[in-house]
């Protein structure tokens, strides 16, 4: 099993429109961040987490079209508004792609993008809607999830297990719960939200994330969903051993 970080940026990406790099060095390519998404892959199964507005370019960069399932963490625009590009995956599969989300998120997705799930004007549906279960298997990858407080909603924290190896993905939360500790403790790799240094009302800030990492003690932690204040080099120099910033295109195996 391996993970590819498709994107590790916040909702506006880095740079923001207007070439706003903030505190990030534009000469460092790892500071260029598209919206947060990952691929999880075994020898026989490939899972896409979220369909960001940058999905098309992310999958082109990864040279990937074969997807066995999509898992949405939640329905915020930066995590789902690339959903129209699933059409190309549908054409490659010749069948709708199974798409999983919590019930409330799926309801919102179906309200906004009904044609994706039901088809329209002779165009077939491209996604088969399914509900995320606490513990399920997709292909040969075990998938477990936990509800993470994220402002007024809940996002899905995800743990993937295959052949005694584990990867956790936990983005878009503002509170770290006992259930999250239980799910992510001891994973080999944990990709986890760290929006910025200053506290934020709906996201984890750096000190909160580092506390969570100490509690869960993963083998390795990667910070994601970072804004333009989080310069790759300076941030990396300040982090403890075993913790590093993610970057778009990073691939890693447990």
TrEMBL record:
SMART domains to which the protein is assigned, alphabetical: Lactamase_B
Domain Metallo-beta-lactamase: 34-225
Domain of life: Bacteria
Pfam families attached to this UniProt entry: Lactamase_B_2 (PF12706)
Record InterPro entries: Metallo-B-lactamas (IPR001279), RibonucZ/Hydroxyglut_hydro (IPR036866)
Protein name, entry field: Phosphoribosyl 1,2-cyclic phosphate phosphodiesterase
Lineage: Bacteria, Pseudomonadati, Pseudomonadota, Alphaproteobacteria, Sphingomonadales
């Amino acid at each position: 099993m391996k993970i590819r970080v498709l994107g590790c940026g916040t909702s506006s990406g880095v740079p923001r429109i207007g070439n706003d790099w903030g505190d990030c060095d534009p000469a460092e390519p790892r500071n260029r961040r598209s919206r947060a998404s990952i691929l999880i892959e075994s020898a026989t199964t490939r899972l896409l987490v979220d369909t960001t507005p940058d999905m098309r370019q992310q999958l082109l960069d990864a040279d990937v079209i074969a997807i066995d399932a999509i898992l949405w963490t939640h329905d915020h625009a930066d995590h789902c508004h690339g959903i129209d590009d699933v059409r190309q995956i549908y054409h490659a599969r010749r069948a709708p792609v199974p798409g999983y989300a919590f019930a409330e998120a799926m309801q919102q997705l179906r309200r906004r993008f009904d044609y994706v799930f039901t088809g329209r004007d002779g165009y077939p549906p491209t996604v088969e809607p399914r509900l995320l279960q606490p513990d399920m298997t997709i292909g040969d990858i075990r998938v477990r999830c936990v509800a993470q407080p994220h402002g007024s909603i809940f996002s899905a924290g995800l743990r993937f297990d295959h052949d005694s190896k584990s990867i956790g993905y936990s983005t878009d939360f503002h509170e770290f719960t006992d259930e999250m500790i239980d799910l992510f403790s001891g994973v080999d790799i944990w990709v986890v939200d760290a929006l910025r240094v200053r506290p934020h009302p709906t996201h984890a800030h750096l000190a909160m994330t580092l506390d969570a990492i100490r509690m869960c003690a993963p083998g390795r932690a990667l910070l994601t969903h970072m804004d333009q204040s989080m310069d790759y080099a300076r941030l990396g120099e300040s982090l403890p051993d075993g913790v590093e910033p993610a970057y778009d295109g990073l691939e890693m195996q447990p």
